[in-house]
Amino acid sequence: MKRFLLYIILICGLHGHAQLKIFGKDPIIHLENFDKQRVHWGYFLGFNSYGFKFDYINPPDVDVIVKQTTGFNVGLVGNLRIMEHLDLRFEPGLYYSQRDLTFPGFERESDAFREVKSTYIHFPLLLKFSAKRAGNVKPYLVGGFSKTLNLSSGYNSLDDNYTGTFRMKQWTTNYEIGFGIDMYLEYFKFSPSIRGVFGLNDELIRDNNPDSPWTSNIGSMKTRAILVNFTFH
Predict the structure, then answer these.
(1) Which InterPro entries match (predicted)?
(2) How far apart are CA 223 and CA 197, in angstroms?
(3) Residue 31 burial by CB count (10 A; 0-12/13-18/19+): exposed, middle or buried?
């Protein structure tokens, strides 16, 4: 991920230099009327880091350990101009992620460890608040709500943790907030951004046994995620 970010920065830097000081004192203004479009489209590629926030019924001696890994994002962007400096964004995308959970109190690693792989279809509806454009750069804030469909939730499985199956609810509601930068290049607009995702509802499906050592003491389990997207318009 770090190497990919470095490549993106180098490409943009070289392109900007070739276009005679894209960030300089007197840059050549690119795509001057681009943001005046009522509607425009784009796509994004990026990375994610998904985790969980656990709340407990009774404070445990040891929390559930959540190990986050880096996943991959791809999707489309639809932008509706509401007024100057304010846009409505719809960014449906496909998100692949994995979280490794270690539950306390087990002697065998096979009982304690759960690998949670998820394939999400993500539907965020966001408001974008842009600053005044300075040359070929314009920073912005973004925030809103989203619904997420977990294609790997296992919500309809009759098995549970007693047979090694970790189950989650199929739909999640979230709120999101983040920031980014619009960079106007000669032929397209490039927008790197970072956003936090905060789940609002409990996603855990409890085991069939109400005294399950895996799920009986968990009051709620909610998504926490960081999304890094590179958008091209």
Answers:
(1) Beta-barrel_OMP_2
(2) 7
(3) middle
Give the three-state DSSP class for 141.
strand
- Quote the tokens at residue 108: 């065998």
Helix (H, G, I), strand (E, B) or coil at 92: coil
How many alpha carbons lie under 13 Å from residue 207 in its C-beta half-sphere? Answer: 17
Work out the burial of residue 107: count CB atoms within 10 Å of its CB; fewer than 13 is exposed, 13-18 middle, 19 or more buried.
exposed
Alpha-carbon distance of 32 to 25, in angstroms, equals 17
58-to-19, 55, 63, 111, 215 alpha-carbon distances in Å:
61, 9, 11, 21, 12
| Segment 120-155, tens digit of pLDDT | 999 999 999 999 988 899 999 999 999 999 999 999
For residues 209, 212, 218, 222, the Cα torsion angle rounded to the nearest 10 degrees is -70
Q: Give the CATH number for residue 209.
A: 2.40.160.20
Where are the alpha helices (H) located in 100-218, listed in sequence order?
Answer: 109-112
Range of the domain at 116: 2-232
Q: 85 in the Ramachandran plot: left (φ > 0), alpha (ψ -120 to 50) or beta?
A: left
Tally of domains within the chain: 1
pLDDT at 135: 87
